[in-house]
Amino acid sequence: MNNINARLDTTPASIVTAPAARQPIRRMGETSIRIAIQVAIVVVLLVLWQYAVDRKWVSAFLVGSPLGILESLHKAVTSGSLWVDTLTTLVEAIAGFLIGSVSGSVVGLSLWYSPFFARVVEPFIVAINSVPKIAFAPLVILWFGTGMISKVALAVALTAIVALIAAYQAAKDADPDLQSLALAMGATKHQLFFKVVVPSTLPAIIATTRINIGFGLVGAVVGEFISSSQGLGHLVFEASSFYDLNTVWVGLFSLMLIGFLLYYVVDYLERVLVPWKQTDSVQRVRV
Hints:
Elements: H1 2-54, H2 60-63, H3 66-79, H4 81-110, H5 115-130, H6 137-144, H7 148-172, H8 176-184, H9 189-226, H10 232-241, H11 245-273
Helix pairs in contact: 3-11, 4-7, 4-9, 4-10, 6-7, 7-9, 8-9, 9-10, 9-11, 10-11
C-alpha cells in the first residue's frame, strides 16, 4: 500500500517536469535549424550572384562578384589594412555608443525628478531631435579636428538624444500604482527612483541601445567619409572613388559583422540585467 501511494505521489511531478526537461533540447534543435536555414539563404544568394555575373546578366563592374570580394578580402587581410580599419571604426563606434547611450539615459532618467524642468527643456530636446544629426558633421569636424575624437563626438551626437528621449519617456510611463504603493510604504523619492522607476525603464533603455548600435556606426563612418585616413568608412569611400566595388563590399560586410556582434552583446546584457523579460521564454504561447 505504501508503495502504491509513493508511486501516485511521484507521478504528477514526473509528468510536470518531463516537458520542462525537453524544452532545452527542443530550443537547441530549433536554433540549429534556424542557423542552418540562415546559412543556406546566404549561400544560395551568393551562388546566384556569382552565376548572374558569370552569365553576364549583371555587370561585375557595377555590383562586384563574390569571388572578387573574396580576392579583395584576402588582399586586405594579408596586408593588415583591414584589421587596422576595422579596429579604428570599432573603437570609434563603441566609444560614441557607450558615451551617448549612458549620458543620454542618465539625463533622461534625471528629468523624472522635476516634471516642471522636464517640460521646460522638452521643446529644446524635440527641436534638436528634429534636425538630422548628420548635418552636424561639418561642425563637429571643425570643432574637434580630423582625428578620432571628432568621429566619437559625431557618434555621441547621434546616440545621446535617442537614449535621452527613450529614457525620459520610459520614466514617465513607470507604473503609477507601483509608485503609489512604494510611497504608501514610506519610500523616499530617491528610493522610489532607484527601486521602482529605474528597474521599470531598463527594458526600454536596453531596447534603445539596440537602435543606437547602428547610430554609433553611422556616426563613426560618416565622420570617416568626411575626413579620415583610417577606418572602414575611409576604406569604402576610397574604394568607391576608384570604382572598386569588391573592396566596397568588403567594407560593408565588415560593418555588418560589427553591428551583428554588438547586437548580440547587447542581447546578452539584456538577459543578465533584465532576466524577467525574455521574449524567448518557455512560457511563450505556441500557435
